[in-house]
Amino acid sequence: MSLHVSIAPHVHSKDSTATIMRDVLIALLPTTLVGVYCFGLNAALLCVLGVAAAVLSEYAYQKLTGQKVRINDLSAAVTGLLLALNLPGNAPWWMPVVGSFFAIVLVKQLFGGIGDNFMNPALTARGVLLASWPVKMTAWYLPTFCKGVDAVSTATVLGGYEASAMDMFLGFIPGTIGEVSKVAILIGFAYMLLRKVISWRIPVVMMASFALCAALFGMEQDMVTSLLSGGILFGAVFMATDYTTCPMSPVGQYIYAVGCGVIIAVIRKWGSYAEGVTYGILIMNIVTPLIDKYVKIPVYGQEKAKKEAKANA
Amino acid sequence: MLRNQQWVLRVGFCGFGAVGKYERQVLALPKYSFKGGVHPLHDQHEGKTSTTKLPIRAYVPDSVDIPMSMSIGAPATPIVQVGDHVKMGQKIGEANGFVSLPVHASVSGEVTAIGTKVLLLGGPTTIVTIKNDFQDEWTELSPLGPVEEADPTKIVPAVQAAGICGMGGATFPAHVKLTVGEGKYCDTIILNGAECETHVTCDHRLMIEEPQRIVDGLRAVMRALDVKRGVIAVEDNKPDAIDSMKRAAAGREGVEVVTLRTKYPQGSEKQLISAVTGREVPSKKLPLDAHVIVLNVGTAKAIADAVIEGKPLIDRVTTVKGCVKDHANLRLRMGTIVADVIGECGGYTEEAGKIVMGGCMTGLCAPNDQVVVSKGSNGILVFNEEDAKGYEENPCIRCGRCVEACPIGLNPYRMKHFCDAGDLKGAEANDLMECILCGSCSYICPAKRWLTASFKSTKEAIMREARRAKK
Questions:
Q1: Could you tell me the residue range of the domain that residue B405 belongs to?
Q2: Does residue A90 sit within a domain?
Q3: What is the pTM of this model?
Q4: Do A300 and B270 touch (CB under 8 A)?
């Protein structure tokens, strides 16, 4: 009789990296669909190219470096889709390709692959695209059906475009493919909460701290517009919650989320960019190792042991 | 300068620390529960359903292989010869020192062999083989009488003489736990009826079938140590056991039954103490330093048997589950060979891939089916080949689920880095020695990292290192 032997536990939860990433993809589906509805087939093409380029880059890199190919964990697909959703709807086809390659190879794989990158790959790639092709990355136009004609070039809400709160909530405003529809993002958020993929902490605290700062600083926009415009909700739900680049402990997550909210508010108020979400989150990504180092979770019994030692001394 | 910056950071983080503390109290720590933990097999009622309603039945084998080491501490020395006739309950192994237990014959009959066998914990163990004559003739017993008449000073020695150890799986000698050192005191005895492990139902059935004995055991311990408060703690997935214990405890002064939230590892000593009393056991100290003693309900029943009838611990209830024909709660004699138990349950239904002694979260793997039932065997789980297969470790994605699941508040992902690198000092600095090896982090990890396994081996390495340094 030959039996397997192993160290306990002998049972494991059904969740795996792939099921988590699949849930994120499902959560991104509503906002992707609204984006495609708003910005037409080009948006769909960008999403497909973004995902394909990310998965191919990961496959090629892992093959070339002789590593185990891990494209089945779907993390590359998530990165590719997130990047595509961060582009304007009329961006040229090569943009998601360049961005995905940058995100996967330079940001993720060169630093050790999944779990070891210190910045959010999709967001870093977006930052690079924004710096490299600022005109193309900020060429906003209205959803095609809004004005009845194709491609009306316009500013975003933060750039001065006026929209009703309902339009901003539903997504009938200029912006990137993924960020326009707040209701779709919230559906995705609810799904991820339900599936316990993320906790409420980072998105809620980040939005709250941003709102508080906006009130304190006195933004050009009113509060509702501040919260519903730009990419802050998309960033709070899908970008800031990236496992690898946010702190592990609850307290650390509060610090991180507050930091994100404050930096975004500062950039929006005083920065030269109309939008600060990308850099706000990226800066806090870089602070994350520091937060994880200094925020200690109280270990069972240690505080009491210290107290007793003091009492005895 | 650098030091000053660090202080600024620390002060800043303290403010957030206060918020975090508040969150723990408001959101995560309802009454009779603890922080962290997991819900293994929650959708399948913790895998317990098939045996919760099955009454305990006895099974007596043709022969038993009684190990001389069935508990933590020094192994006993055999005091019988091959060919000797022994009676049931007769002492066949003499304890070696204080943290060691005597061993008793679990059947009457003839000693046919004294040899060695490889059991669960690695090295070979001395075993005494007794062929059962089915007379079940008891050796002379010296009971202390009903609990309220028993001499309090004689209760703990009786527990020691009966060879009783923790029967929840940890097998720590009970008399050592019950010895309150100088300058210490105990004000609460907790009986652990949580049975948070998956699959096993032996404590559940015992609470339904012999609640009176369990309460008697608790009262005996309270009497011996002059403790006024005894708590029987049961998880809320066993309402029938709670009812049964409440009825048995009714009218007994100082004895109460509390309902715990069903969550793993609710039955872990530290978590149970926190849940029931709100106290924390100081780091690297014993429950007694929180003025609490925790005993398993099975242990309490054994203590009652030892006090009231003078019977040593020679049998226990074990749940048999998995790829066997009839699932069962069996009352088994110590030293019963697992293959015999499975035969009694109708044999294997599929080829066995893995045999786990205990539950899925902490059970130990048997090298073959010739291992024996001992004092800590609460379950025998037979896995088929498919479920037994090993799995590959994937890269950590830093999802933080291990941090949230850890009932101690450790950072499993970070400890694992140090363990993988073989950095014992680094692992220790990250509080590896506080780890209770409950398995929650390994259970919850989506990347299926071998967390608990590497913590266990690294802890052992650190302890080896410490012993070497002492020498």
A1: 394-471
A2: yes
A3: 0.89
A4: yes
